[in-house]
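Example (one chain per record):
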Amino acid sequence: MIRWWPYALAVVASFPGIYQIFLGNHDGYALTAGLAGLGILAAAFLLSWACEVAEQDIPQALAVSVLALVAVLPEYAVDATFAWKAASDPDQAAYAIANMTGGNRLLLGIGWPILILLSRIHLRRNEIVLSRDTGADIAVLLLATAYAMVPIARGSLNLWDTAVYLTLYVSYLVAASRGEEHEGEPVGPAALLAAQPARIRRAAVLGMLLFAASVIFVCAEPFAHALVESGKIMGVDEFVLVQWVAPLASESPEFVVAALMVWRGASDSGLRTLVSSNVNQWTLLVGTLSVVFSVALGQPGSLPMDGRQTTEMLLTAAQCLFGIAVISDLSLSVWQGVVLLVLFLISSIFTEAHFAVGVIYLVLFVGIMVVDRRSRQGIGRSFATYFRLLLNRKSSESDAAGGSGH
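Predicted structure:
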């Protein structure tokens, strides 16, 4: 029974926030934000473990769609809360995409470098080589981030953007469901549950999903509200709190799972987990925010983005485009990981220069595409893989050909 302590800890950690919220024991916004955030973090770990185990029992096509939805639930709950409130309080619109931009930049600027450095230190490997089918992830991610320039230029997210992003998301699910099946084994606490008899395992997974989703539903709104109010009271920029504190709770489980995969030798699966998360956020999460806003408004509407939000979204999209260029040949080397980390740290330190850093990312992306023929070929192969999977065709020799590092 001692081996089940991670599950017990996650369940117990979710109760203080629920207690604080339901009993109205509001001893301060900071405490409420901390306890509700702890509940979301605990629920995110439970979701992560349940998703890993669920892959053992459901068809791949269903697994891809369900797990993609579950993966963005913690982060989506917070962003959707702000989008909903923005319909009646325009000031809340300023926080609607803050969580998404922070989460994406953490995944790419911290997550990717940690995985390649861990692979180098523990496995003595100088690069992580991704599977051929990851090309579909890269193609969709490129389309989604490139399209982001449209709402950035407009200064709002509307239902036309929703149509584009959800179309990309559905196409991604179709392509992913038709890719090669990988019989990866669950790692960490998920491995213990996966080893249980089928009936027990399935019942436990269902219970974990329902419990975790309920905790997130209960904690999301109080967490978002308390986070903003805490910033006002403490004199800390509320946007910064929403952008960085909330993603630490929602992204931590993915970091841990991906790192465990790398530690156990499945470096490609670990990195693809984070790339897939980037895709889900740029399609499903961003695409549905205007729907939430419109429903709360009672009519079709556009979720406004002020100057700061458009700058943050530009920086996030530009960083993602640069990341795509880096892994366009389906590999990530140590030095590329270091560059991603350094650029992320620069953008985090020089917060007043986010627009300039975003432009630098874009210049680097364009420069790589123009100068490096292998990168252009890698992007071409990624789109070939994407369309092959959409059309459910067998791979060709040119599609199967791999690339080499930059």
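Caption: The chain is about 75% helix and 0% strand.
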